[in-house]
User: Fold these one by one.
Assistant:
Number 1:
Amino acid sequence: MINTAKILSLLIVIILCISCDTEKKEKQKTNEPTTLKDNFKNNFLIGAALSNTQISGADKNAINLLEKEFNSITPENDMKWEQIHPEKDSFYFEIADKYVGLGLKENMHIVGHTLVWHSQLAPWVQNIKDSTELASTIKTHINKVVGRYKGKIDTWDVVNEALNEDGTLRESIFLNVMGEKYIAYAFKLAAHADPNAKLVYNDYNLWKPEKRAGVVRLVKQLQESGVKIDGVGMQAHWSLEGPSIEDIENSIIAYSQLGVKVSFTELDVTVLPNPWDLNGAAVEQSYEQYEGDPKMNPYPVKLTDSAQTQLAKRYQDIFNLFLKHQDKISRVTFWGVNDGSSWLNNWPIQGRTNHPLLFDRQFQQKEAYKTLLNLNN
Ligand code: XIL
């Protein structure tokens, strides 16, 4: 009698254990991340830059992919000064409104890019020579643009690319006319126009030790004079070979020690040859003499398997670093949704076929995508 009872209870325990284990396995299966934003949801936001065509809704495939994989957006061009404020008394908000509408509809983290930048600046601003006039122009611009999207745009790239490669201030129209106070001025205006928005200083080559020192100086100066700055945006237009993980890591640490968050705002990894003395991502650079040169465009149809694997490995190393420092990083944004829409097809040489992102021209997942989804985080 006792034995039968014992055997019975043992059987029940065994059955319970088996069913519990199957349930656990089932759970693991359903919990498996299936998208980028899901995979990194406990680490940082995953963003993509949107082109004019994508925002206007003409590229449905891109928007479908965006909604599935990403939880943050940045406008690639449509909020730049020349687009949004082309003449002194005229603003063009049509595309920007659509962009913000899309982000709100999808409940995404919305980035504004960018308020004060020497490139893609409206020509009428470039003619201003008087300091007071330039200050009042910047004031109108920031109040109007930031004010319009108050409470809707979560993060603003307030000043873009104010530094030279050696960390000194770039001789832009803003520096030349107003002196270095223009930077604090822009941040103050943005903070006033939307006190809840996160405010970022954004630039390329921020892994470089000399430029890093320049950013540290700039952020400290702002903080010491009581000006709000929330983050440093490292653009991250990188290649298969560089920058080194160590240089990137040193910058993440240096910036976060200032008490601001780091974001990777424009990530892409070029796979095309870059044999000339090309540094960073200054949009003015162009190399017309290489246009149509097949040596400069080795993958006009598709990426070879070995290059695909190299790209995957590079992204893996980069994201392993990001995960290591996830407490310091708020967002990782890719500069484009898929290879077909990347600016690197036309910069710095027009008409090439680049493959720098995680989705190919047919919006299919590349090896790099699958590698990132398998990262242990
Ligand atoms: C690029 C856009 O992707 C291109 O479409 C445009 O022709 C030039 O600008 N740094 C920045 C971005 O901050 O705004 C730039 O975007 C790339 C470099």
Number 2:
Amino acid sequence: HYYCRQSESIGSTLLGYIGIDTIIEQMRKKTMKAGFDFNIMIVGHSGLGKSTLVNTLFKSQVSRWSSGWGGEHKIPKTVEIKAVSHVIEEGGVKMKLTVIDTPGFGDQINNENCWDPISKYINEQYEKFLKEEVNIARKKRIPDTRVHCCLYFISPTGHSLRQLDIEFMKHLSRVVNIIPVIAKSDTMTPDEKNEFKHRVRKELETHGIEYYPQNEFDDDMEDKNENDKIREAMPFAVVGSDKEFQVNGKRVLGRKTAWGVVEVENPNHCEFALLRDFLIRSHLQDLKEVTHNIHYETYRARRLNDNGGLHPISANNTQESNL
Ligand code: GDP
Ligand code: MG
């Protein structure tokens, strides 16, 4: 340590500016050129406003299965998985956003094991990535289809979580970053909302469900303090909308309710802005890193172990994961 410190000061006092800090700019340029993948999955029974919320988050029609399809949309008999990708560009940075919708989840009479197709999809993406990684002729950049984040929509009942909610999050929180949100929170009064949030947090804790950002992956005290605040505010009670209203001379996204217009992006009205800032502005990179370093790593270690430990799976191995 002592030597480190000393050479540090020599660097800056005797040699003058070296330019190590330009690595930030170099990285920025590379990232801008390459762009990045971000894959978000939405789960919850139909009509909870999943498509609307994702569209509100990314301000465009990225999720095409909203009720806006002119009338009733049919409920599939089993859970279907549908992925749609869009390239969104902002400030010269390209993001390939894939929204993975799971219509049919929770809509059946018997919802037993209805998370199976979802967990299968998630594991298949890990498998795909692993196969690319062990390939002798590796791609310079492996396309990343792994699910970085799973938004789980909780029904705004005001009572408690359903058994299905608990089962789903329990099973899936081990393989993917789960972010629970309370859907359509404009249907609750502020008191009901706070009460419900509190109860949901308690229930999640009782059942030992670790949602994102997981305690155990906080890097340092600064991280922990920041994430503690987020965890205490979760699950975010959100409102989505694609309709604009005139409020105090400004056009805002909102929903008309008996109490007036609920402004989606106004933090005094709902927690949409909190969710957006958390998901996109502060934790997007971390969601990707936890997916890669924890969830994918767990899958990879298990797969290579099952495979006899020493020999990696061959590139043209067509055997599917046994999950
Ligand atoms: P999905 O089936 O979960 O994808 O739900 P949709 O996004 O298609 O929305 C279903 C219906 O709920 C539509 O009529 C939406 O306008 C409405 N909706 C969406 N978000 C909200 C919300 O935050 N609050 C209320 N009250 N209604 C919403
Ligand atoms: Mg939908």
Number 3:
Amino acid sequence: MKGMMMHRPLKIADLITFAADTYPAGEIVSVRTEGDIHRTTYKETAGRIARLAHGLKALGITESDRVATLAWNGYRHFELYYAISGIGAICHTINPRLSAEQMIYIVNHAQDRVLFVDLTFVPIVEKLRPHFPADLRIVIMTDRAHMPETTLEGVLCYEEILDGQPGEMDWPDFDEDQAAGLCYTSGTTGNPKGTLYSHRSTVLHAYDMCVTIPRVLNEGSRILPVVPLFHVNAWGLPYGAPLSGSSLIFPGGALDGKSLFDLMDREKVFSAWGVPTVWIGLMNEIRQRGRIPEGFGDIVVGGSAASRSLIEAFEKQGINVCHAWGMTEMSPLGTQCNLPPEMADLPFDQRIDRKQSQGRRIFGVDMKIVDDAGNRLPHNGTTPGHLYVRGNTITSGYYEDPEASKPVFDKEGWFCTGDIAAISPEGFLTITDRSKDLIKSGGEWISSLDLENIVMSHPGVANCAVIAVPDAKWDERPLLIVQPSDEAQPQKEEILCHLAERVAKWQVPDDVVFVDALPMTATGKVSKLTLRKQFPEAPHDA
Ligand code: ADP
């Protein structure tokens, strides 16, 4: 027997309509590419989204068309998220840090019909335009007064698309499984692969994040997504914030420690979300100024592992650190590490130990770990295995890419994350490595993440990475690459000693290479792929 309740499709547009009705004064503050600060509310934004949606229809955009964005975090990008999906089209966010080759690949693969571009990225588009589809329309995200001189032919102006359009929209109903967003992974191997989010998965993810991180997502809370709207939906914040009544503070393109500190201080940001590299920059600024930004109380850190020293530094300043893990293919949230009440009174060190783990799963994400043969492994906290997930917010295959899709699902339909992890009896997940980053030395696995964590606690180290290099005797050996902190000149021996005191002797790398800066991926993580190319073997003076 079926239940007798109404069935309304879950739709993204309903989130902004709800926010405009329920939290009309909820704010969206943006650092604009034009150079000033822009302030608006959910109520005003809902009106502009309606105008933009009418404007998109006037451009000929219809259901399932792909409309691309190449933009920083700001109110216009936010409006595009809602207007595009609201009319049943698909918002394809492009990461401006991708290589030219990757960008050309994804715009053509997605067959984008319109590309919305921030002023900053106009030069990139000018260069790549000949390689994009001939009928691609280009819109510059500014007003008439700020339209730049450009070699691009027939470009449109964002504000003119809204001009004269009605500020209300009767959002169409469609199946909740209708595609809404498209985001390509940065493609560390092979071509980038597209994750195609649906209205249903996006709304469920918004619910999930609100119930899982209520400390941050609540009415009146002020949240800074440093994580870009061009990468995995800024971790879901453009949807979770309006649903919970939180305000959004968008930083534009200024993501250095000083700019972030000033913005957070001025806007009384409570919670800021981003990858570890960003927080290293902010912590340097906090140390220099000898205080934290006013109102600051929380960070959500993920995208790559947050080191113990980073977590400790923020917690010592009274800032709650929530370590989170996820993937583009997972919308992205998988786990978050806010501690349960029974752990609140643990001694400081033990709390930090716990917070180093990636935390417990969010509702709707099932997790299993398996051995090489696919047999389930126990959740005892010490046995690592290949991590698989399934759930309503997880991809069921890559967009128009059956070949790439096949190998990532097991017989039971679970998605292979490519991460190696252990799960404790209390449900805490600890990622030990990406499977392709694991180091196998003399038949024993060495976790690069464990080593990096320890090295990061050395005061002379700003950032580091451990990669495998081939070794005649041991197959592979770990090589440590260190970016020293400003003015520090740590010695090799000193760093290796620091490690030797904390891990088994055979795990200690044979050598340390110092670099001025570690190469980063398009999503702000240390690029081990580049490092492996740079250091295909141990340096000869080892
Ligand atoms: P990209 O590869 O394009 O940067 P993702 O952001 O989807 O894309 O990367 C997901 C991967 O990032 C995860 O599979 C995991 O290896 C890593 N990751 C994400 N969050 C964490 C975390 N908190 N700790 C360790 N690794 C993480």
Number 4:
Amino acid sequence: MKVSGQWLERAETQKVCSALRDAGWQALPVGGCVRNALLGVPVADVDIATDARPETVSDLAKKAGFKVVPTGIEHGTVTVIAGGVPYEITTFRRDVETDGRRAVVAFSDRLEDDAARRDFTMNALYALPDGTVIDPLGGIADLKARRVRFVGDAGTRIREDYLRILRFFRFHAWYGDSGAGLDADGLAACAELSAGIETLSSERLGAEMRKLLAAADPAPAVAAMAQAGVLRQVLPGADHRALAPLVHLEEGAGPRWLRRLVLLGAQDAAGLLRLSRAQAKALAAFTNAAQVGGNAAVLGWQLGAESAADAVLARAAMTGAAPAADWQEEIARGAAVRFPVKAADLPGLQGAALGKRLKALQSRWLDSGLRLTKADLLD
Ligand code: ATP
Ligand code: MG
């Protein structure tokens, strides 16, 4: 089986790999790039596995004229920047000891060791320079069946790193067969060991949850998470039931993870998932808007088009009532208009009195669905 694609054929990828190969080392694109190329979906970034040690990778890359960033050199990863494109080059590793959060790794000369410490068979795929895929663990068959399967014993692998529970659901949402459901052994192990999620940092949880919720349809995976008792470990108080209706309603609106997160209605999602300040603010604003509802144009004016659309869709999914037929036009109208009255239109008023008057006029204007004109308001 062979893969191809611009990510593999482009000059930078070939040059980076050649820098290692010409010195006698292996250089194999691995993981997401090979998996996605086999699936025919876009490849985000190219990770490379090698038997060269990190210092050697660094030396050879510098000699070839690339910029080198020692991102995680103690874990074996060197980032090489070629033509502006970052490549993460990681030395083959094998696990020697784990504490459930970080693995203590030793470098290895064998690709098989490296494959055995990856999470899922579909992520343990490697490519040779001509695109030939090396598949030591049957990942291609699992990929064809759209089956996310742990490498080795699911329970053992989860105890090494509890984040793998979330990754199991994330990869299922993106690449799994939603009809066939999740791999039974994997699911059972996730349910049994869900308490271990407690040990994970909010950064790691947040990164995985954002990726999960950004899938085209995360609803079946999130429902399975809820059933397995995993969802409440991550987000206490979350309710997944409005998620499927939302995904149905948002057709064409694009898979925004923040909109999906609103629907889960968890307490303190912003803190638990370590959202950025801007993300937390948007989450609060349209959680509120989704709860109280209101005129689509007014929401567009208050929140901007994107968040207003999120709020309208979220509200419809929560209440089961379809939004008004013209909701998109109304949001666009609201996002484009400005409150027509300015302080200069109210001569004779100053300070608190002016503020009060402007506020009153604005509230009349909002009540009119942003339709009253300046003349109407000053009349
Ligand atoms: P994406 O398209 O989301 O980036 P990816 O497969 O590249 O998908 P990453 O999270 O970037 O996913 O991880 C890169 C590779 O590293 C994976 O394909 C997998 O082989 C391995 N990996 C990452 N995280 C873990 C983990 N917690 N346990 C085991 N292997 C992991
Ligand atoms: Mg990746």
